[in-house]
Amino acid sequence: MTKSLLISPSNDTRNSIRKIIRDRRKELTSSFQESAALALLSTLKNSVFVKESQHIALYLANDGELDLQPFIHWCWQKKKHIYLPVLHPFCSGHLLFLLYEENSTMIQNSYGILEPKLAVDKICPLAQLDLLFTPLVAFDNKGARLGMGGGFYDRTLANWQQRQFSPIGLAHDCQQVDTIPVEAWDIPLPKIITPTRAFNFTTAAQSKKPNK
Question: In order of start, what are the domains of the chain with their CATH numbers?
Fold first, then answer.
């Protein structure tokens, strides 16, 4: 198992953590990525929370992120509905979640990431999601999540305790750090899963009051 990086918030800014972890992630070989994806699939398909969920928000791997395609294909086989994030066309900094099927028309967004072509009848309101899996750059032992810096998922996860869905972070083991300098707008996660471990931070995440 890859050891976490011990990073002191007094010596490293959030951006430097992002660079360190993104570089580490990009160094992972294709064979390692394939093994990690299959290990994640094994964990998720046997989990109670996935078995009990029908509407699941995921994302397409980018920038060395953990590959979710094996899990996506398994979900399709089990007739589960999969949704991907789409940049909101009118509310800057916000996401919509659109149904993702094998024949979905995909387009490249302004960040160079593929997303389903916007169609009003394919949008799934957050209130109808059962699970929302989030990408992240780094996480620490308290469930703090460091994203790419755009705040898209922090806005999406605000007040998640009052919604139906449960948010779960997905990451490689090498993305764990000792401490992340937390900002007021950061939303901690109740659970983070890697190819080898599952971290539960329910108490810490629920005690944090998200900014509106």
Answer: 14-207 (3.40.50.10420)
| pTM exceeding 0.90 | no
**Average pLDDT over the chain, rounded to an integer:** 87
The label of the residue with tokens 């093994």 reads 35
Contacts for 79 with CB less than 8 Å, ≥ 6 apart = none
Angle of CA points 148, 154, 156, to nearest 5°: 120
Please write the tens of the pLDDT for every residue from 8-31.
444 458 889 999 999 999 999 999
Query: E-strand spans in the chain?
Result: 55-57, 81-87, 95-100, 106-108, 114-116, 131-134, 138-139, 145-146, 166-170, 191-193, 198-200
Q: What confidence tens digit (pLDDT) does each residue in 86-119 have?
A: 998 888 778 999 999 999 999 998 888 899 999 9
Q: Is 114 helix (H, G, I), strand (E, B) or coil?
A: strand
Cβ pair 193, 36 in contact under 8 A: no
Q: What is the C-alpha end-to-end distance of the chain, expressed in Å?
A: 38
